[in-house]
Batch of 2 targets.
Target 1
Amino acid sequence: MGIERVGVIGGGQMGGGVAELTAKAGLATVVREVSPEAVERSAAGIRKSLDRALERGKLDEAAHTSALGNVSFTTEMADLADCDLVVEAVVESYELKAGIFRELDEVVTSPDAVLATNTSSIPIIDIAMNTGRPERVIGLHFFNPAPVMKLVEVIPSVRTDDDVTRLVTDFVTDVLDKVVVAAKDRAGFVVNMLLVPYLNAAMRMYADGHASAADIDNGMKLGAAHPMGPLELSDMIGLDTMMLVAETLFAEYGDDFYMPPPLLRRMVAAGHLGRKTGRGFYDYS
């Protein structure tokens, strides 16, 4: 089986980036959003990113035009029926993802189609068992921004067929030109199992008054050669997403270093979610 037609559910920052990748790779790509307004935002975001790539010389005119022509948009799940691969890229909520996979199971017609989730922390088997084809479900975790970041975690569950894992790994490597990390199906996989305690520790350090946000971030950028400090990175990820991921990891492992810090909960409650709302650990207004 080859992958020629890709569906992406959720056309925001993460899903839009995945759709841009597959469109640039020459694949027919259908982005499903929840409303016409969301479709407009997604289309504008993808076009802006492709325009920027053109301006920077990373795409030529022909590739830019081709990529734009490869992407279509819909508000109907049924328009994903003939996709070879569907990538779900919505907010990090098990209930929402479970509902989407139940619907996909009814809609996607080919028994060989692969249903993938871009979850950053939820166990794949929990999502897969909402379908009648868990052997065709896999974790496909891109990193933000997807067009730039080279890494993709590929996470089969205990029910995923080996041929699906091979197909998806080859697709990500050969077609999308990414580097694959093969991860076991444990909450947080590889990257977030290591990253979340680090980000939580930076938040606790800031909350306890050990150092300013800028000094914490500069310490890790200039002292540990990180490209971005932990509080800057948390703002970019989105503090609401950070909290959901931390909660999933804490529920799985029970270790205190995964528990969302109280300050994180208060900031989310206040609507200070980072870059996307204009305020997090820094003011972006």
Target 2
Amino acid sequence: MPRPEIHPTGTMLDAARDLLLGKGARSATVEAIAEVSGAPTGSIYHRFGSRDELIARLWIRAVYRSQASFLAAMEREDPRGAAIAAAASILDFCEEHPEDAQLLAAFRREDLIRAMPEGPLSDELEALNRPLERAVVQLARRLYGSRSRAALDRTLLVTFDLPYGAARRYLIAGTPLPSGLRSDLIRAVEAIVDAPLRGTRDT
């Protein structure tokens, strides 16, 4: 039976996230993360190699958490219900994991990629959204019988752009989502999904 970690990786990542969100990017030094997490700086460097790698791992953890319920919703048998559930799952993630949601709103994947040397971590960042891209293509086909640009844009709009856009300003401000936001979002998604779609020829 493996020995439990004296200084769990999750504790280090949580400390970095608290510093980033509470005091800004410059505050999240390895020394500050060590002080907040209680882990020696040597343990942090041994676990991650560098501050940039730690931040990238923190961001990747948040992405995987956000993707889990979204991808599960996209697999529902009823494509219309899948689109609605996928959109709602983004608001659910923001409410259940507000710190991770704020982190994703504050940092861009492209910036993290630029900070990384070529290697497995950079490759993981590059491939991070591919499961979502495949899911959107599959749902577009199920909704509209097509993977045309119009079908893909419509599917991405209702499952991601609308819910993320609706939540983003609250995430940036660090305030709770309004109580009526979910019902308003669902009505908007239903109206757009059900609207006639032009330009469905496959590209």
